Amino acid sequence: MSGKDCFKILDKIFIPKNKQKISEIKGYTIKYGNIIENDEVIDEVLVSYFKSPKSYTTEDMCEINSHGGNIIMKRILEICLKNGATLAEPGEFTKRAFLNGRIDLLQAESVIDVINAKSEKEAKTAIKQLEGELSKKISEIKNEIMNVMVNIEVSIDYPEYDIEDVTNNEVFSMLNSIEKKLEKLSKSFDSGKIIKEGIKTAIIGKPNVGKSSLLNAILKEDRAIVTEYEGTTRDIIEEFITVEGIPLKLMDTAGIRQTKDEVEKIGIKKSREIVDTADLIIAIFDSSKEIEKEDLEILDLIKEKNSIIILNKTDLKAKINENDKRLKEASKYIIKISALNKIGIDSLYEKISEMFNLNKINLDNDVLITNIRQKDFINKAIDNVKKAKETLEQKMSIDITAIFIKEILEELGKITGEFVSEDIINEIFAKFCLGK
Ligand code: GDP
Question: Which fold would CATH assign to domain 198-360?
Fold first, then answer.
């Protein structure tokens, strides 16, 4: 429970073993006792106390640890409600922490990312954001913009000092530096998105080329962390896995995993649909067989896409090799493996890393944005930097430049939550689960 009445409510339902008065209990302590209703002991519990302002929400807070189990937990919840508490809305604790100014909107958003993280890299990125690294970066940029404003104000306030040209040049170069920093942040979304959402990967190929064998080889890797993932499209099942730090969201693995007696293996038509939405296509061919019409269709399908061609079954006598022109025309990445013997799978990971520049992501030094909302505002800020620069180039009155510069500040303020509407705040917190 959080809020000014939480200890009052607790007083009515909890009796500490040492009968200490609740008002005398210090913050940061845990008390052992009973939850009581009409003199009946409901459960033995531990209650943690947090006194305002040193709590998650900055309000008075207490946390009741019961023995768990649905019945007891529900009962205790009902007793709290009966005695004056109201049920928290999704994300309400974090929302209060934000509204009470303990964290900014970026940090609040990262809470949900920390909880939902599917890989260590994703968790690390989210924790950094929670710790305020991205907020710090944005506030550095905001300070630079404030400096620009100061420069401009001087020239507006003291026009008699004819320093306009000097100011214009200075402001222009300051804006250039701000633009570079914003561009870097905006670009970091490419990596941030991969870390957060994974590389949407489709494994395609004719029946019997070894799709399931490859999938099994990947999934059985000791280093693969598999996370159950509910696909967004109902008929496509997705699985999130991380191999050697490479986050892959495998698409339609159910289709691939179907066994021999299942009628429908992935057909060309289905492949086409998947190929269109994938970030990466792994197209498998049986190297012990000549290329057939269906293979050619697949090669055609992956042209101009991000793809890796796998020549599988290299343990058998080869009928196709990596120098085949038809393959080379379809993809610049061709690798040879034996899925059955698990040979060559590492080179697949290497190629993926190379394609998506995963080696270049340095989580210790780089601040990444992982959220499209943040990216949109950064891009809007960049637009305004560009407009401000144009006004200087066209030698317009500096007052007009100032208007665009104020816009930059506002867009950045929307990211951290200073200038943000209640609707947006509600939308963000609605994504949280209850009790967070
Ligand atoms: P899918 O229909 O594309 O999913 O293909 P499967 O993975 O079910 O493989 C079809 C057949 O090829 C199975 O009998 C596999 O054991 C066999 N197979 C898969 N990979 C290899 C390989 O690298 N070498 C050999 N010799 N056989 C393989």
Answer: Rossmann fold (3.40.50)
